Amino acid sequence: MASHSVNPPEDSAAAEAAPNTVPPRRGSLSFRSRAERSSSETLSVEIMERSRSRPMASYASKRSDSDKLGSQREIDDDEARFVYINDPERSNLAARLPNNAIKTTKYTILTFLPRNLFEQFHRVAYIYFLILAGLNQVPQLGVFSPAASILPLAFVLGVTAVKDGYEDWRRSRSDRNENNRVALVLVPGDREFRPTPWKYVRVGEVIKVAADESIPCDMVLLATSDPAGVAYVQTINLDGESNLKTRYAKQEMQSTAPEALSGLIRCEKPNRNIYGFLASVNVDFPTGTAATKPVSLGQSNIILRGCELKNTSWVVGVAVYTGQDTKVMLNSSGAPSKRSRLESQMNREVILLAATLFALCSIVAILAGVWLVDHRHELDTLPYYRKQDLSEPQVGKYNYYGIGAETVFAFLMSVILFQVMIPIALYISMELVRLGQAFFMIQDKNMFDEATKTRFQCRALNINEDLGQIKYVFSDKTGTLTENKMEFRCASVRGVDYSHGEEESLFSSVSSGETRKPKTSVKIDPELMDAIKGGQGIEKANLARDFFLALATCNTVVPILVETPDPSVKLIDYQGESPDEQALVYAAAAYGFMLVERTSGHIVVDVLGERQRFNVLGLHEFDSDRKRMSVVIGFPDKTIKLFVKGADNSMFGVIRKNIDLDIIRETETNLHAYSSMGLRTLVIGMREFSIDVFEEWHSAYEKASQSLIGRAKLLRAVAANVERDLNILGASGIEDKLQQGVPEAIESLRQAGIKVWVLTGDKQETAISIGFSCKLLTREMTQIVINSNSKEACRKSLQDAASTARRLKAAPDSESTFSGTGSMQTPLALIIDGTSLVHILDTELEDELFEVATVCDVVLCCRVAPMQKAGIVTLIKNRTDDMTLAIGDGANDVSMIQMADVGIGISGQEGRQAVMASDFAMGQFRFLVPLLLVHGHWNYQRMAYMIMYNFYRNSVFVFLLFCVLYSVIYTALPTIIVGVLDKDVSRKTLLKYPKLYRAGQNNERYNLKLFVLTMMDSLWQSLTVFYIPYLAYRRSTIDGPSLGDLLILAVVLVVNIHLAMDVFQWNWITHASLWGCIVATIICVIIIDCIWMFPGYWAIFHIMGTRLFWACLFGILVASMVPRFTTKALTEYLMPSDVQLARELEKSEETNLSNSSEIPLSTFSQL
């Protein structure tokens, strides 16, 4: 299949004018086919553009900021917020800005009761019960006592309100703790920092933060403990990445004492974009003279609330966004009220039953009116109806209000009498069943995480059955699919493959009696170690040393010393923005090139036991246009070299091919082998600078770094100009350690008809590489990549993507079969970045994105902010009826988890924010398979049947006009037991055939057709229970109590036999509850008839002594069950479902009637 590439034009001016976006870059929509990849492309690590992220920093005296937004454009006054440094009064004068207090609660004391009741009364049945309770308060309609009628509803509402109130109180307590944390705030008059609660921090105030403390608000850096203004922060609560990020204070502010500093910051208004910041600052120097021109600020100059300061003694900053305006709060969505899908569908059935009830009551009222008219002259003397009150000397009316009013009363009293057609007991039974289901899920040993010793947690009891209807899974990447641990596996040095790491590295750095060792050990290849030491010639040794020196220097990794029990030994923990960089630096250390120190302008590397200092003269960071990074290093011998590393398809375009052609070919062969193993690959190159070349580069670099407008674009041009004519040093292969069982879990979910989308804040190339590793992406897939920077470019890209996707899906491909369909189609993968989503979400382009995304088999969203994750979930929820599930482990996943129908938190290494916000929590991604395919299937099947059976059971009662005692005692327990314990198929079968899960997705166990058939069945059974005794005894002298005993025994037998026919798995508890309830019914009837004061005294013994009684019972059972039995038998024989076939397979295996381990299932081959 041919490769497709579309590069829509963009309006650069419009792109530069758009806030919250990266600087202008060519929007791109690319299609990567497997034909392309098979010929030239290998699986590679293309480090994604740091969209709206930190600057490219030169570690010289004048650093540059390649921050994508900091150099984009000037901000109009109408779009700007004005922050006066160290002057909060003036900063808050023009507009009343919020203080720094946060609020995550749903309720207040005044709104709790009305809002909570409003949320609960989304259940239509509750409105029905409220109306009934109100009717029962009318004296003329008092079928039950007023208190008894209101008590059940009040109990259910009260218990739910207490639970919701407790959860909100916990959120309020957390808010108080957060708001009362203390920060050091500069008092302008006193010129000293004083402890101040976070909630009192205001925009414009200067704040000091010490090492390992959390940042109280979004603040622009003014100064740091590092003389060059460098600070390191951990952003785990924002983007889920535990690696350190580098931030900088501008030299114009770093050089002035914070208490003496003043000036004006003009920044963009608060927004959700955590990867961008657009601002400029005019600094007033102590002499009173203002800066001649504004200094641009970007993402590298702001640290956000929720970050933690690391490896930096202190920083000082000025608050620009506080409280609810901070980016972390704007990316936090409130906790929504989640309701089960089955409960929502029940509202439809409740309305239908209410209509049926209205019809029945109308018939009763009409007949009552006709009867009153026919007997209007006999009402004074009728034995059961008195019109006159003769209890007083003066004759009066006895609760009689005329025929019209009595007809209305008859209607309303019928409503109260027939109310159990919509039983409130059903909702209580559902909660009990869910409690039992949660117990078995928590106790499931297959979902126990041995590594962390944590069990499955069920934090929400009202959506258990939704686990059986999931259609979309939205997953975070880092810490959810992966362990976020990179391991150096292979190296290709000058075309020679070294991938046989067998020995543990024993290298350490010794200085002044102190020994330093890498915290993480890496297995080394003895042959490569021998080459480094010169055992294979001096030329090979020099090239190998340059290779590992490039790994040790071409990065932004920071070495942090960790104490050990031995005071003379310290471990070096490498922290950096990318786990890839950490793995490469650990590998370099293992081979004798240990990075031991990094400052703003130089680094120190222990080279084979000798410490050497290298000056960092300039650094060009990764971006998605170049797909590489480079660093200019000054060596101790005064030579200058450029080290470059990047993706293979980017690097081979800038490597010199007129020499070492054989080495390049061998390297390409090794790279292909590495990528086939699922490794992340990088190519390493080097260029030596002459003095003239260095001075030319340095001049252009400094000029671009100091540019206020278009700085990022200029720096990219400088980098592209110098990164050419490289000599190839080699390539590396890194394994990103996936969590155990992730590829198998994704494949099982895919077979079950569940689409897995990955939403990550990580780089695009990293996400793609992980996609291949976990088998989410395959080489048969054609990748549709959308990277655009304006709304029009996004529109054009989406239109092209939609037309291409439709064409590729429609065209059969003889080489690939799309899993999940029976046809031969080209599988598609959509890959889109957060920059494009800025212009798509919440606009009319959402519909076009939805069209493209739903056609694709896999969707990867890269570099997305937390609220963009929630926006993608909303995209599906608002346009389909499909159930969604979100799973993540970090605070940046909270919005997505709360937005999805089902939210799951991973108890990982990134805190407990995701767990606290989730509905369910577990230790590993692979536990999704037993949770959804086993427990989800069982929960849905049990709950759907229990609801349908309760409607059937109560409909039979209403049609027969029996007492409420029947509904509560005689038949309630078996349904709860079946709802908790019954299994249609075993765990083994559900895991063996994931496609059985589709029964829940297709609503096979609960739908309108099944509901109507059940109601018809209940009507037929009620007719047989009523008319068979009526026809048998119509000419006899049987009394009412005797006939009532027969009817109540008959209906209890019928509904329990009906339940017994539908039980899949029998055990002693099911037997005891079902047959025990029948026995209990007989005992209750006998006891009641043994009480001499009741009118039915001894009636049961008289009627049970006749043959006609037993003949009626037998006839009722046969007549009631024959239609259902016949329909059930014919359906399972002629049109068996996959679940029924799987059940037969289990039986055949148990009885050894089949010699094969598998039998074809009717629809498996078509799904």
TrEMBL record:
Q: Where is the composition biased (Basic and acidic residues)?
A: 62-72
From the UniProt record, give one GO term of the biological process aspect. phospholipid translocation
Species annotation: Zingiber officinale
Per UniProt, subcellular location reads as: Membrane
Which parts of the sequence are annotated with region: Disordered? 1-72
GO molecular function annotations of the record? ATP binding; ATP hydrolysis activity; ATPase-coupled intramembrane lipid transporter activity; magnesium ion binding
> Any one cellular component term from GO for this entry?
plasma membrane
Extract the Pfam families matched here: Cation_ATPase, PhoLip_ATPase_C, PhoLip_ATPase_N
* Name of the featured protein: Phospholipid-transporting ATPase
The Swiss-Prot or TrEMBL record describes its family as follows: Belongs to the cation transport ATPase (P-type) (TC 3.A.3) family. Type IV subfamily.
Please give the start and end residues of each transmembrane region: 350-373, 408-428, 956-981, 1010-1031, 1043-1061, 1073-1101, 1108-1126
Q: Residues that bind ATP, according to the entry? A: 476-478, 581, 622, 645, 680, 760-762, 863, 869, 892-893
What catalytic activity is recorded?
A: ATP + H2O + phospholipidSide 1 = ADP + phosphate + phospholipidSide 2
Taxonomic lineage per UniProt?
Eukaryota, Viridiplantae, Streptophyta, Embryophyta, Tracheophyta
The record ties this protein, via PROSITE patterns, to: ATPASE_E1_E2 (PS00154)
Cofactor(s), names only, from the UniProt record: Mg(2+)
Q: Which UniProt keywords apply?
A: ATP-binding, Magnesium, Membrane, Metal-binding, Nucleotide-binding, Translocase, Transmembrane, Transmembrane helix
- Residues forming the P-type ATPase N-terminal domain are 83-150
